[in-house]
Specification:
By secondary structure, this protein is of the alpha/beta class. Helix content is about 25%, strand content about 25%. The strands form 5 sheets. A 3-stranded mixed β-sheet has the order 2-1-15, with helices on one face. A 3-stranded mixed β-sheet has the order 3-4-5, covered by helices on one side. Strands 6-7-8 form a 3-stranded mixed β-sheet, with helices on one face.
C-alpha cells in the first residue's frame, strides 16, 4: 500500500495539497511593513481564494485546509514555505523572514493531522524557506541561497535528506530589491515539465542556467513586463498543465506554443498585493503519476 504523501517533484500530477484560506491575519493594516503593495480586501481575497481552490478541485486535486489562526502572521497564506514534503515525510523549515517566524509549528501540527510524519526540523540559526527549494527531479533539489535560506539551512537540508539519494544543488541568488523583498529561487523559475521551465533569465545565475541546459531543460523566457506580475510563478498540476495568474498574456501564449494546457485565476488580492503566486499558495503533499 502506497503512503499518502511524497512530493519530490514540481511537475508530477498533483494529488493532495494544503492551502490556507485568508483570515483576519491577512488583512494587514500596515502593508509597507509586510512589503505588500496595498492593504488586502479580506472578503475579496476569500472569494479569489475560493475560486483558486475550485480550479484545483476541478483538476482532481484533493484540497485540505490549514485553518489554525495565526495572529500577526499574514504570510501564512503562503503554505508552500514552512515545509518540504519528501517520500519519507516532512522537513519543517525555519523561516528567514522575521515576520514569518512561528509559522513552523502550526504547519507541523497540520501535516501530522493529515498523516504526514515529521522527519526533521531545521533548527538553531539555520534558515530555509520552501520558496528556495526547487526539485529538478526526485533525486535533485536546487536550493536558493539568499536572504531567506542561509548556509546553515543548506547544511541542515543536506543532513535531513541524508540517505535518501538526493543531491543538493546550491543556487546563489541576487540582491535584487534587498532583504525585505520576497525573492526566492522560485521567484525566478518554475518547472512545467521535466524538460521545460518558465524563467526570467536576467536574474538566473550563470552556473545554474548551465546546469539546466546540461539537463536538457528548455526555458520559456518571461517578458520583462510580466516578471512583476509573477509570470514566472506557474503551478504545474501535471506535466505541461500549468496554473498561472491571469494578466500574463505573453507567458500564457509561450506556454501554449510549447504544448502546455494553461489555466488562470484572478489574484488581485491573494497574489499581486502580497507577492504570493499559485505555487506559494499551495503546499503539495502528494505528487504521483
Amino acid at each position: 500500500m502506497s503512503v499518502p504523501y511524497g512530493s519530490q517533484s514540481m511537475v508530477e500530477p498533483l494529488r493532495r495539497v494544503l492551502v490556507k484560506r485568508p483570515d483576519r491575519a491577512y488583512a494587514v493594516e500596515d502593508p509597507l511593513k509586510w512589503h505588500y503593495t496595498a492593504k488586502p480586501d479580506l472578503e475579496e481575497a476569500r472569494r479569489e481564494h475560493d475560486a483558486f481552490v475550485a480550479v484545483l478541485e476541478a483538476e482532481g486535486v484533493e484540497v485540505s485546509y490549514h485553518d489554525e489562526l495565526q495572529p500577526g502572521r499574514a504570510d501564512a497564506i503562503s503554505t508552500y514555505d514552512p515545509a518540504v514534503v519528501t517520500d519519507r515525510g516532512a522537513i519543517i523549515l525555519s523561516m528567514g523572514k522575521l515576520l514569518r517566524r512561528g509559522e513552523e509549528d502550526p504547519m507541523a501540527r497540520r501535516l501530522e493531522e493529515l498523516g504526514v510524519p515529521i522527519v526533521y526540523r531545521v533548527h538553531s540559526e539555520a534558515r530555509a524557506e520552501g520558496g528556495d527549494c526547487l526539485w529538478l527531479d526526485r533525486d535533485t533539489l536546487a536550493v536558493g541561497q539568499g536572504f531567506r535560506t542561509n548556509a546553515g539551512g543548506l547544511r541542515q537540508l543536506r543532513e535531513a535528506l541524508h540517505g535518501m539519494g538526493v543531491e543538493i544543488v546550491p543556487v546563489p541568488l541576487p540582491y535584487f530589491y534587498g532583504p525585505e523583498a520576497c525573492l526566492h529561487l522560485m521567484s525566478l523559475i518554475s518547472l512545467v515539465d521535466h524538460d521545460l521551465a518558465v524563467a526570467y533569465p536576467s536574474l538566473l545565475p550563470v552556473p545554474f542556467w548551465r546546469t539546466l541546459r546540461e539537463r536538457g531543460v528548455d526555458l520559456i523566457e518571461v517578458p520583462e513586463a510580466e516578471f512583476d506580475t509573477m509570470g514566472t510563478n506557474v503551478l504545474a498540476l501535471a506535466p505541461r498543465v500549468g496554473l498561472i495568474l491571469e494578466g500574463n498574456p505573453g507567458t500564457e501564449q509561450a506556454l501554449r506554443d510549447a504544448g502546455c494546457r494553461v489555466l488562470t485565476y484572478k489574484g488581485d488580492e491573494i497574489t499581486l498585493k502580497s507577492e504570493g503566486g499559485p505555487t506559494c499558495l499551495t503546499r503539495p503533499i502528494l505528487r504521483r503519476a
